[in-house]
Amino acid sequence: MLVAVAVLATAGVAAASNGGFAPVAPNSPNASRTDTAYYVILAFTGAIFVLVESLLVAFVWKYRSRGRARTVEGAQVHGHTRLELIWTVIPVIILCVIGLVVFYELPGISSAPAAADPLHVTVEGHQFYWQFDYPNGARSINDLHAPVGQVVDLDVVSPDVIHSWWIPALGGKIQAIPGRTNHFWFKADKQGTYTGQCAELCGLYHAKMEARVIVETSAQYKRFVTSAAAPQVLGKAEFQGVCATCHGMQGQGGYGPNLSTNPLLTQPAGLEAIVRTGRGLMPAVGDTWTKAQMQALVQYAKAHVYKGAASGG
Ligand code: CUA
Fold first, then answer.
1. Per-residue model confidence (pLDDT) at position 291
2. 152 in ligand 1 pocket by Cβ < 6 Å?
3. 167: exposed, middle or buried (C-beta count within 10 Å: 0-12, 13-18, 19+)?
4. Per-residue pLDDT tens for 46-93?
5. 117: confidence class by pLDDT, cuts 50, 70, 90
6. Which atom of ligand 1 approaches the CA of 209 most closely?
7. Under a CB-based contact definition with an 8 Å cutoff, are residues 251 and 308 in contact?
8. In the predicted model, is pLDDT for residue 20 greater than 80?
9. Distances, alpha carbon 201 to alpha carbons 23, 151, 256, 300, in Å
């Protein structure tokens, strides 16, 4: 009993402070519905846990040996129809209630509410970054910008392996599967930055596949999508969001080799070839990149990463 109480108290504190046990506070209707289902199930399972553990402890105490010899048979109990009916019917009712709640909540989780002006964004999971395509042709890396209060429809795709898009405050997970387009949506109820993480083990740098959804006013969003295509902005986002994961923020090297002294950075054709097709352990990070995107990277790498060929090498 003491253990049960201690466990529940710990879980309660953890849930209250959101120490990883409870879902994060929802900021999208689909996330709210998932949350509701979670707490309904938690209420039943919590109550059953307390009941079963209390009875277990009570019976252990009540039927303790009291110094009887180990060979003495205990009292023999045979069927009790009423009790057996009760412990069959109650679980059936509980399962029905849980089923009803889940089926009631499901449509509002999987389908976006009808909206006059949904924003369509393509989310591409990629070893090891997220790329977003906006209706005006702009692209961004790792940071998805979205206007507050608007339905955002996501087409989730992957050109390489399976990833999983997951921003907990904005709904559940959806897999990005090669050769398939999955659909997801959210409607953020307030401005802010919502963080998430690729939720499918997708390779060496799976853990670095963090994503952020930046929810802003519609004017801020419009300003972002018009400026995102500027080569300086795009090139920087690409280098810092894609190359730097393995090669370091200044191209100084890390898991991948040092780039800052590699003359390849000044050779557009050579750089494009390796970025598009990969080499050795390096994935084909830029296999879906546009020409403009490639040029933006070339410009950025030459201007901000390349420090001149290593001397004496
Ligand atoms: Cu992508 Cu894990």
1. 87
2. no
3. buried
4. 999 999 999 999 999 988 888 888 888 877 888 899 999 999 999 999
5. confident
6. 1
7. no
8. no
9. 21, 29, 20, 30
Ligand 1 atom closest to Cα of residue 162 = 1
Both tokens assigned to 306: 């390349």
User: Is ligand 1 within 6 A of the CB of residue 198?
Assistant: yes
Instruction: Please name the residue whose Cα sits nearest to atom 1 of ligand 1.
Output: 163
Token pair, residue 115, equals 């909206």
The candidate with the shortest Cα–Cα distance to 220, out of 196, 188, 265, 250, is 188
Pairing of strands 119-126, 152-157: parallel
pLDDT level of residue 244 (50, 70, 90 thresholds): confident
pTM confidence score: 0.81
Question: What is the 8-class DSSP label of residue 22?
Answer: S
Cα of 211 to ligand 1 centre, how many Å? Answer: 11
Q: Which amino acid is residue 234, in one-letter code?
A: L
